[in-house]
Amino acid sequence: MAVMKFLIVPLVLIAFTFHLCESFELERKDFESEKSLMQLYKRWSSHHRISRNANEMHKRFKVFKDNAKYVFKKNHMGRSLKLQLNQFADMSDDEFSSIHGSNITYYKNLHAKNGRVGGFMYEHANDIPSSIDWRKKGAVNAIKNQGRCGSCWAFAAVAAVESIHQIKTNELVSLSEQEVVDCDYRDSGCLGGFYNSAFEFMMENGGITVEDNYPYYEGDGYCRRRGGYNERVTIDGYENVPRNNEHALMKAVAHQPVAVAIASSGSDFRFYGQGMFTEQDFCGYNIDHTVVVVGYGTDEEDGDYWIIRNQYGTQWGMNGYMKMQRGARNPQGVCGMAIQPAYPVKH
């Protein structure tokens, strides 16, 4: 490509050993009184640079207290999973879902009969490695942030395309989620969508432009095509991984990062900090979010896992990533992640 901006992924993101970003610690003394809890709330607001006026802080205080108590209790259960009071700590469940969630199932079903999805090219793949991390191979961009917009579906689609483009061309470029949000009329921008229809959009519109041509701004806007043809990345198709089959998903991830749809509005997912997220943790009740599986492996203490790339910024999880249990008893996988994974095809 003529004008491409290479992105160097920070080492902290490509090393297998995950680290929390600067964390916000909780102590037992923080819960001794209403006064100490309010001091905790103010300290949290300052730490995350979240500005609330006095009236709004008063309204949100109970929500913050309940979330802080939940996080503190969960972190003293003796498990590897640890939660943190991240940037979502004074949001109610309904508020979080309305801002960050997407009705994935609705859009998936809406366009199910109209797509041009292919078969499963990795069905007969052999010699699957026991572990892989596409970050270490330079095929994953730095963590992004969808902000106050239900555009997870666009971020997952774009991230998967960025990765397969790098795998095929050795060029890692940052592409425009905003172009998908504004121009993919099958979906509804910040109100929701599905990654398969985003793949369809890219196939029909000569690919997708680089992010510098069409920057992200956390909202819906008018569609405007920017940049020349040589600044666009194309795909040749997309395929679904067989449903409810984590072994098939492993075959696909061994060859490229894969987009997956999950339930995410539950407190355990929202406040995830580090450690293994398992099927006993609360994801939520509905499929309302999309992320990308960028690898897998086995931990001596926690067992088999997936590496999940989210788009809530680096303050969430382990610098934006999650270690999720692989090989769940439920064939749908943890949080439903095996229900309908998909990936773009590039020859």
- What is the 3D shape? globular
Profile the largest sheet: 6 strands, mixed
CATH topology annotation: Cathepsin B, Chain A
Number of strands: 12
Mean pLDDT: 89
Q: Please, how many helices?
A: 10
Rg from Cα: 20 Å
- The CATH architecture can be named as Alpha-Beta Complex
What is the CATH domain class? Alpha Beta
Helix/strand/pairing class, anyone? alpha+beta
User: Share of helix among residues?
Assistant: 25-40%
First-last Cα distance: 16 Å
Percent strand equals: 5-15%
Order of helices and strands: HHHEHHEHHHEEEHEHEEEEEE
Number of domains: 1
Question: Helices, strands, pairings?
Answer:
Blueprint: H1 11-14, H2 34-47, H3 54-74, E1 82-83, H4 93-100, H5 104-110, E2 132-133, H6 152-169, H7 177-183, H8 195-204, E3 208-209, E4 232-233, E5 237-240, H9 246-253, E6 258-263, H10 267-270, E7 272-274, E8 276-277, E9 287-299, E10 303-309, E11 321-325, E12 342-345
Parallel strand pairs: 8-11
Antiparallel strand pairs: 1-7, 2-9, 3-4, 5-12, 6-9, 9-10, 10-11
Helix pairs in contact: 6-8
